[in-house]
Amino acid sequence: MNIPQSSFSRVVIIGGGFAGIALAKKLSKQEFQVVLLDKHNYHTFQPLLYQVSTGGLEPDSIAYPIRKVLQGYPNFYFRLAEVLNINTERNIIDTNIGPLKFDKLVVATGTETNFFGNEELARNSMSMKTIPQSLNLRSLILENFEQALLTDDLHEREALMNFVIVGGGPTGVELAGALAEIKKGILPKDYPDLDTRRAQINLVQSGDRLLPAMSEIASKKAEDFLEELGVNVWKNLRVANFDGKKATTNGDTIFETETLIWAAGVKAVTIRGLDGENFVSRSKRLLVNQYHQVKGFDHIYAIGDVAQMESEDYPRGHPMMAQPAMQQGENLGDNLVASLKGKAPKPFNYKDKGSMATIGRNKAVADLPKFKFQGVFAWFVWMFVHLYFLIGFRNRVVVFINWVYNYIKFDREARLIIRPYKQQFKTDR
Ligand SMILES: Cc1cc2nc3c(=O)[nH]c(=O)nc-3n(C[C@H](O)[C@H](O)[C@H](O)COP(=O)(O)OP(=O)(O)OC[C@H]3O[C@@H](n4cnc5c(N)ncnc54)[C@H](O)[C@@H]3O)c2cc1C
280 pLDDT exceeds 90? Predict the structure, then answer.
């Protein structure tokens, strides 16, 4: 990997997500040699992926070069690499670009979509965890309408315009709201010769309320907002399988659709060598103590979504959200710096700053520690918070301008099929 030897202790961080970046920033000016590895050369702001999928934002505005985040810091090395194996006895990781020895290892690999072992479902469904996946979804949605315009078969046309989103968490709710706004504001103008009123957006939730991690009032209001926008909300219904044409459920309901978006589960991204049953929870998260050390190791840590720190307040670990990931990265950074000075580490204490979800224009729900509110104000707060946490000044400006433009013009101009998804549209090879 061409990383020079150093008299400083080498900290290898796997993953440049919210947790990995927060930690790297804390360590970058300290007496450590920091090596950050990621299989992408950019950080992804996942909370806005749904806007890329629905043409509201260009992908560049929610991605940021990892090298730029830590530019100019001495003793810092980034390598574009996928980590394949961890040898916990020899303190070596194996990657697609070669091995690397570590003194301390931090796993911050996040999560991936969980299809719970159903391979047919995995093969035929769309996920929305990465920028390439969001671009695939954007292309597929638009290609479906192009195709719907061409077919004389009413049945096929309806299936092409029938969207099924599985999972009533924030991702499902936000995506359903955005699709409903496209149906209402954009499709009739883009496709005047297609009866786009027949397009259906279905949101399927296995439990009895949407946004189960938020308050009852937020769930209720989100459902009201979605229904106002014309989304069909299905509760207490589970999608069992999808063969690419038909989605079956645990009830009598069958959806005939060409597009099923799976937002109903994630599992931690573990790496071979550190995936043993004694330190991995049911959701594959790495069990860590309150100092982020993986069970059984004192020099291997896990932070962010991949880590499960069980406590009285959080018996199943912290929520898989950006805030806990960032706070864990910062806490571990402070503790490693303290160790240089011979100081004792501080146990992690999560400060819950609340959660929010947006459903559409002027429609959001917010549960803050002291207040719960919904509607226009929540929508403005949601926008402000997302702009604040977005990395990079340019990205903030671009996103802000896009939002203002979209708001004034009722538009989403990034509805481009740049990377066709369906075979028949791949004409420019
Ligand atoms: C669609 C969507 C919407 C969301 N909305 C919100 C929201 O509104 N608010 C909120 O707080 N949270 C939201 N989240 C959750 C939030 O994004 C995650 O909790 C957060 O990203 C976790 O940070 P992390 O650092 O643990 O992992 P990630 O940010 O996922 O970063 C993991 C990194 O590890 C890299 N990686 C993985 N495996 C390897 C490997 N083997 N080798 C090298 N690199 C590897 C990946 O490329 C990635 O860069 C959303 C998530 C999604 C998918």
Answer: no
In this structure, what token pair is assigned to residue 55? 């043409």
**Residue 174 appears among annotated catalytic residues:** yes
Within 341-375, residue ranges assigned H as helices are none
Tell me which residue has its CA closest to atom 38 in ligand 1.
109
Q: Which residues pair with 202 in a beta bridge?
A: 164, 232
Position 410 scores a pLDDT of 84
- pLDDT band for 429, please (50, 70, 90 cuts): low
Determine whether the shortest distance from the Cβ of 78 to ligand 1 is under 6 A.
no
Cα–ligand 1 centroid distance for 166 (angstroms): 19
Tell me the residue length of the chain: 429
* 429 token code pair: 């090879």
User: Sheet containing 363-367: which strands, arranged edge to edge?
Assistant: 355-360, 363-367, 372-374
88 φ/ψ angles, rounded to the nearest 5 degrees: -75, -15
Could you tell me if the CB of 19 is within 6 A of ligand 1?
yes
pLDDT digits over 50-75, tens only?
999 999 999 999 999 999 988 888 89
Three-state secondary structure call for residue 352: coil
Distance in Å, CA 397 to ligand 1 centroid: 23
Q: Quick check: CB of 110 below 6 Å from ligand 1?
A: yes
Q: What is the pLDDT of residue 425?
A: 85
What are the φ and ψ backbone dihedral angles of 262, each rounded to 5 degrees?
A: -95, 110
Distance 72 CA to ligand 1 centre (A): 25
Our answer on whether the CB atom of 35 is closer than 6 Å to any ligand 1 atom is no
Give the whole-angstrom CA distance, residue 16 versus residue 5. 23
Q: Which of 58, 143, 174, 223 is catalytic?
A: 174
Count of helix runs (H) and strand runs (E) in the chain: 12, 24
Strands (E), 152-275: 162-166, 200-204, 232-234, 239-242, 246-249, 254-256, 259-262, 266-268
